[in-house]
Amino acid sequence: PDELEIQARWFGGEYGRHFRGTSGEWIEIVQFGHWNRGAGPDFTEAAVLVDGCLRRGAIELDLDVRNWERHGHGANREFNGTVLHVFTDGPASTRFFTRTEAHGLVSQVLLPQYSGLQGPPDFLPEAFPGRCLVPLSRMVDDEVESLLLAAAQFRIRSKGARLRVMAGSTDPEQAFFQGLAEGLGFRHNKVAMAVLAQRCPLSALCGMDPLEREAWLFGSAGFLGARVFEEARTREAAIYVKNLWSEWWKLRGESDTTPPRALHWRADGTRPLNHPQRRVGVLALVAGQWGSWKRLLDIPGKNLEKHVNNLSKIFDHSFWARHVSISSGALPRPVRMVGRDRLCDLLGNVIFPFAIGVSEDLWEEYIRLRAVGSNQKLRRAALRLFGLDADRKKLFTSYYHQQQGLLQIYEDFCLEDATDCRDCLFPGQLRQWRWDRSFVSGGADRDRLNAVI
Length: 453
Known about the structure:
Helices cover about 45% and strands about 10% of the residues. The protein is α+β, with helices and mostly antiparallel strands. Among the domains are: about 5-110, no CATH class; about 170-360, no CATH class. A hairpin with a 2-residue loop joins strand 4 (about 45-50) and strand 5.
C-alpha cells in the first residue's frame, strides 16, 4: 500500500490505539488529532500517552523510518512539535532515531506489516464529529446563531483588547500598523511580519520616499541577500532588485539580518499570490498611504468595508502587480495586490476589533460582513460541530462572524481537549444553553459565555 492508504487506515483506527514503541515504551493514542492536508506533519493536535505521560502535538507517518531525514523533517522547525513518528519499514541492521530541529527525541512506532488487499477507504474526513454534534442538532437555528454570535463577540473583543494593550505600550498608530502587518502575513508568516513592522517602525517609514521605504522593508526582511540578483528571473525583476539595492546598501548597517536575528519566512503551503515577498510589497504601500489608513478609525458614519475596499483599489505597484516573487516569471496580466478574502480578514481581525473598542455601534456593521473562503481549520471546526449536515454547515458559515464564532469554540474546546472528546465540557454546557438575544447584544466576557453555555 502507498503512504496515503496507510495514513487513511491509521486515522480510521485500523491499527488500534495501543503500541509498543521501538525503545520499549508503552504508547497509547488518546486522540488521533486532525488530518493535515497542507504542509507540515501529517496529523496535528494529537494526544499520545508515552509510559503514562501525556504528550500533545503532531504525529508524522512515513513508509520508511529514514524518510524523516530524507524529507528534511529533522531540519524543519514546523516538525518541532512532533510527539510520535510512525512508520512501516526500516533497515533491519541499523537503528535510526527521530530527532527534531530543536534536538528533541521523538518516540517511534513500527506498524505491523499490512497487505492492503482491501484497498483504501472510500472517504475519511480531516476530522471526526465531536460529542457536541447531538446537542447542537437538537438546537433550533436561532439558538445556534446566538451561540456563534456570543463566541464571535468574545473573539473580536479579545483581539481589540490585545491591540489596545499594544497601543498603550507603544503608540496607537504603530499598534494599528503592526496589526495590519500581522494580518497580511496570514497564518504562516504572521510573526515574521509583526517583527518586521517592529524593526521598521511606522514613524520612520513615513519619513522615507517610496523606494527607500521599500528597500528598508525588503532588506530588513532578508530578501536582498547576496544571491538575490541570481534569483531574479525576468528583466523587470533584475531592474527592480537593482533599484532596491541602490538604497539598501546605505541602510543595511542599521538592520541585522545575520542568522541569529534573521526572520523565518514560509512560502510553502501558501498560494502564490500570497508569497511573503509580495506581502511585504503590500506593507510598503500601506505605509506609503498611511494617512488614509489611519483615518479609517475616525471616519464619520463608518461603513468601514466600503472605505477599505476603496483604499485597496488604489493599491498599485509596477512590479508586484505582475509578479508573485522576485524569482517568479511575469504574470500574463496584472492582478490585485490584495484579494477580497484578505481584505475581509484585515477588517475582521484588525480594523473592526480596533474600532469597536472605540464605538460599540460598529458591531451591527461587523456582523454583516460576508464569509471568506474556507480553510483547513474552519473545515475541521464545522466537521466537529455539525458533522456531515451540509445544510447547517452552509447556513452557519455564510457570514464572517459565524466563521469566527466557530473558530473560537473550536480553539476553546476542541484544541484544549486531550481526551478525544470524552471529558470535553462543551457538550454538557450546550444542554443548558438558552437563546437570549439580550445577552448577545449586551456583550459577553469569557466567564459569562462559558457560564451560559
